[in-house]
Amino acid sequence: MTNQILSKNMRFRLVFSLYLNYIIHGFGLIILAQNMTTLSDYWSTSLKMVSFVISGIGIGRLLAYLITGYLSDKLSRKFFVYLGMACYLFFAIGIVSTKSIIFAYFCAILAGIANSALDAGTYTTLVELNDGNGQATVLIKAFVSVGEFILPLLIAAIHGANLWFGWSFISMVVLLILNAILLIPLKFPQPYQNEKNTQEKIEQRQQSNLGRIIATGALVLYGYTSMALMIWFTQWITLFGEKVAGFNTTQAHLLLSLYSVGSILGVLCLYIFLNRNISEGPILIIMNILATLALGIILLSHTPLLSHIASLLFGFSAAGGIMQTGLTVFMKLYPTRRGFVTGIFYFFGAIASFTEPLISGALSDISIQVALGGDFFVGLIGICLVTVINFASRQAFEM
Q1: I want to staple 169 with a disulfide (CB 3.0 to 4.6 A). Which of 28, 92, 130, 282 is the partner?
Q2: For position 56, what pLDDT does the model report?
């Protein structure tokens, strides 16, 4: 089956279901953290143990990304989308039906596997729906943000109505079941056979291409830095505002809220740029420079207005889809191994999510300013990497 056979109606329904999964994924990313106190009481344990359970998500990602990415090129993309949904379904039901920390940790690992399986099946599908172009993958970040925006409001409403906390998890279950039903009749695209043969010949001719080798190494490292740049900021920015800049509680928390608003605006702008066939390389360079500049302003200004503007700019540039754009470049280098490179790229992102708290935590022993300042250093490395990616990938594509 080729992409041409997919009707506009089927394409729309497929894209809708794929994006709906990432609203659910937005729930899954924060649902344990948003229910920490309640889960602590429910499991009769400490907040520290609940935090330990949450760390299982990162372990699940590390265990699964390389495997799901590799196998998604061998098996059906649809299978991995369903696998991700099934793991999230088991996670949501399991968390509210157990009082065992060990079983809860296993469920959290499943959530990490769900993340990797969804990525392996979805990013590749969206690229193949658009004949190798990756602008549709950028919007994934926006739908994740929508999920992260809705869930806290839902939990607040449940708490305000004195309802069982588990209804927030049940909402995930209901959405997953409905979406699974919607996906049953839908067929996923396959790359054009003639395009596949052409791309295999291109890859064979590029085996000794130095530019391709350098771009690959830089992209793998960028999978780490692009993830670290975001999570480093979100972990420390509020504390920095309160403890270092001397902001009041509202001003300090507004920094993170503006970051979230900026990320959604960034996704929309990046989607427009890529839809107009603007090259990914220059976009990556500009966005990484803006993100690092914004961090520098926050670290040095210590004034609410400048810091709030800079936080909005940082969200726009660092969390507006530049990680997904980097993955698009990676998939263009390896068009017949899209699932595998997705797995590699996000595997290094998972390493970042696991190691960043350890690194920044150690830096915080010196000071909160040094802890956040480490993110500035990551930004500088990111600028170097995307500059290398831009020039090396151009060389790789020259035949």
Answers
A1: 92
A2: 87
* Average pLDDT estimate for 238-252: 88
Q: Quote the CA–CA distance of 393 and 219 in Å, as a whole number.
A: 10
Residue where the block lists tokens 């507004």: 254
Among 208, 22, 189, 207, smallest CA distance to 115 is for 22
pLDDT for residue 390 is more than 80: yes
Question: What is the spatial distance between Cα 101 and Cα 354, in angstroms, rounded to a whole number?
Answer: 20
For tokens 């990497």, name the residue: 385
Helix axes 167-183, 8-34, angle to 10 degrees: 160
Please state which CATH class domain 3-190 belongs to.
Answer: mainly alpha
pLDDT > 70? residue 261: yes
What is d(CA 166, CA 145) in angstroms, rounded to the nearest whole number?
22
Predicted confidence at residue 149, as pLDDT, reads: 81
**Which pLDDT tens digit goes with each residue over 292-315?**
999 999 999 999 999 999 999 999
From residue 215, alpha-carbon distances to 285, 380, 393 in Å are 14, 18, 6
What's the rounded Cα separation, in Å, for the pair 270 and 227? 17
pTM of the model: 0.82
| Per-chain mean pLDDT for the chain | 86
Identify whether the C-beta of residue 61 lies closer than 8 Å to the C-beta of residue 118.
no
For tokens 């599908």, what's the residue? 125
What is the rounded CA–CA span in Å between residue 271 and residue 265?
Answer: 10
DSSP state of 334: S
> Residue 368 and residue 241: Cα distance in Å, rounded?
10
Q: What is the pLDDT of residues 218-241, one digit of tens each?
A: 999 999 999 999 988 888 888 899
CATH code at 194-397: 1.20.1250.20
> What is the structure's pLDDT at 194?
42
Measuring CA to CA, which residue among 65, 90, 68, 87 is closest to residue 77?
Answer: 68
Burial 261-284 (b: 16+ CB within 10 A, else e): ebbbbbbebbbebbeeeeebbebb
Place of tokens 């089956």: 1
Sign of CA dihedral 174, 111, 361, 235: negative
The Cα–Cα gap between 357 and 352 comes to 9
Domains 3-190 and 194-397 alike in fold: yes
Q: Token digits for 300? A: 């040095």
- Residue 237 to residue 202: CA distance in whole angstroms: 45
DSSP H/E element including 110: helix 101-129
